[in-house]
């Protein structure tokens, strides 16, 4: 199996639009930290193009392509919901700083 | 002991109030807690919110389903914690999260949220060892100085003592954790998982009348529990076993689920008390601190209390708010290390299923 040349592996590319380049970058950094569970059969590259997060997976089998894409999208969903909940509040830095109690 | 000098704590009083957010999700509970350390040395729990993933009777929690639960509840729990504490994310000094040990998928779910918040608000991350979180919260809540720590939960069973900036494991389970043993037996006799299987076992055990013989498996400082689980399960296929209690024509020689709960608790708790006592004798401490989910079992606290009082000592135990996994303990342990200058860079903010208590350098204690 492992003798299949990498040129014949399966490719999946996903473009996920964000509201801003900053948020796309946050998603990229957050997801990039965790390595793929099977790095020898799944290659992942994440990049940001404009407001888009671009993910490319190269996998040995179709099944792995499906599993990795699924897991990736679940992670994106969680990050997007977190940004949706807190992104706006994070922009409004309170001035002056809180009085110490 | 000769030559023992009281060392000064390396932890300096904070020059301003410090606030930390703690996120926990290593097992079936997702928790968020906010803690504040004041310059006068006092510590305040501002909020401590938790949501538990409860499975139907007879079922345990699977990693994937637990992770989905955490993903669904994380934001609600964090928002609740912030609201109850009346604190804005902007005022928080660091975001603490459980690095391990625990189940991989749930840990990663919570870590993703912690990282996103950290980048959004530009706040440092602090990765915390779950076990150290339990110990530090226990010390904070009870005020115990240098206790032998019995850490008993669904995933861990350890007897721990502090020495030279390290929580050293004196003894532990050789196979399954004590909480795991109780939970799995609860599944066998179809007890509810609400609020927790361990709690329901404790209530059933109060109605037990017979102490049935079970293997007693302490091995030096360690204990073994899987054989006891097999033995207690075997009683449920005994022809004297009555799952719905004795009927009118039964004599005295019947076994009820209540008897089994009682026997199981008495046996495994006696083993825990034994290895804890041995650790106390080793380090010459008269204090015992019981932490972890099983630690809120009142029968265990009572048995430990008898042992400690016979040695002229004292047991420190907590209620379910701080015993069972919670976010505030992660915040407490994280903030202690943050005040000592520890931060987890984003690239190192991965989770690990295996992370032993003694791998942590406890910089904040003398």
From TrEMBL, chain A:
* Keywords of the record: Cytoplasm, Nucleus, tRNA processing
Identify the Pfam families for this entry: Pcc1
A GO cellular component entry from the record: EKC/KEOPS complex
Q: Does the keyword ATP-binding apply?
A: no
Q: Does the keyword Coiled coil apply?
A: no
Localized where? Cytoplasm; Nucleus
Location (main, coarse): cytoplasm
InterPro entries assigned: CTAG/Pcc1
A biological-process GO annotation: tRNA processing
Q: Which domain of life is it from?
A: Eukaryota
Question: Residue span of the signal peptide, if any?
Answer: none
Protein family: Belongs to the CTAG/PCC1 family.
Under the heading PANTHER family, the entry gives: EKC/KEOPS COMPLEX SUBUNIT PCC1 FAMILY MEMBER (PTHR31283), EKC_KEOPS COMPLEX SUBUNIT LAGE3 (PTHR31283:SF5)
The protein, known as: Transcription factor Pcc1-domain-containing protein
Please tell me the species this chain comes from: Dichomitus squalens
Automatic annotation (TrEMBL), chain B:
Q: What is its EC number?
A: 2.3.1.234
Binding site residues for substrate: 151-155, 183, 198, 202, 297
Q: Which organism is it from?
A: Dichomitus squalens
Sequence similarity: Belongs to the KAE1 / TsaD family.
> Where does the Gcp-like domain start and stop, copy by copy?
45-331
Its keywords, alphabetically, are: Acyltransferase, Cytoplasm, Metal-binding, Nucleus, Transferase, tRNA processing
Know the name of this protein?
A: N(6)-L-threonylcarbamoyladenine synthase
Q: What high-level taxonomic lineage is stated for the organism?
A: Eukaryota, Fungi, Dikarya, Basidiomycota, Agaricomycotina
Q: Which residues bind a divalent metal cation?
A: 130, 134, 151, 325
